[in-house]
Amino acid sequence: MTNYYISDIHGCLYELKSLLKKIKFNIYKDKLWIIGDLIFKGPESIKILLFLYNIKENIKIILGNHDLFFIKNYFTNIKKKILINKKFYTIIKWLIKQKIIIINNKYKTILVHAGIPPLLNYNNIIKYSNILINILKKRKYKKFIKIYNNKNILKWNNKLKLINKLSFILHTFTNIRYCYTNNYIYNNYNSKIETNTKLLNKKKLIPWFFIKNKIFNKYNILFGHWSLLNKKLLPKNFFCLDTGCCYNKGYLTILDFKNKIFYKQKKK
After folding, report:
1. Which of 120, 137, 205, 240 could anchor a disulfide with 178, C-beta 3.0 to 4.6 Å?
2. What is the pLDDT of residues 25-37, one digit of tens each?
3. DSSP calls for the chain
């Protein structure tokens, strides 16, 4: 069995199928770990969901910011019965059962869509991410919408109310890129690090993965969400798999992590 990792598919079905063919993905043996943002931006979001649902026994999914936005909108409009197709409703029920982070002690990997903010330890990550997932699984949509819409909690504090902790976890795991160095407040500013050094220094911003965290010493961190990131700047145990497939000059990337082999497919 081979474990493959991919991120930010964004509805690019042709590129995904081409990559799976390129790596000779075996639906009876191999497993595909998808690190968020299955949909939006690209041309075939609905078809992506249908395709992945049909091979659901061979994949593990981390929810990204676009996936959560889709789920939030579904919950918001659930009483209007916008989604009346029974097959699609089945897919929605499957999607809301997915994780927002996976810590795999066997492979010593952490899969998270955007990143892990400062001041969060292992126990906090496990505890509050599990609470979030249970809220989704049990379809407590009013509670989830309240958590999702609460976007003003920008720094972790153990004294925060539970809803604020959950909001912070939800949005940082799926949106974080930089932190302000003076107080570890997260920021979603998106740009190439190497071309904005002066601006970043002026704003006192630093990529989240440069801030020390004990958990980083024990695991390899696989994430996406940052297509413009200069991958050469990453510490050796960090792997960003977002290579901008939904953009004209981008491509989709799959990683065979055990053998450290990257497979790429240019955008059609």
Report:
1. 205
2. 998 899 999 999 9
3. --EEEE---TT-HHHHHHHHHHTT--TTT-EEEEES--SSSSS-HHHHHHHHHHTGGGEEEE--HHHHHHHHHHHHTGGGT----HHHHHHHHHHTTSBSEEEETTTTEEEESS---TT--HHHHHHHHHHHHHHHHTT-HHHHHHHHH-----S--TTS-HHHHHHHHHHHHHH--EEETTT--EE---S-GGG-HHHHHHHTEEEGGGS--GGGGTSEEEE-S-TTS-GGGS-TTEEE----TTSTT-EEEEEETTTTEEEEEE--
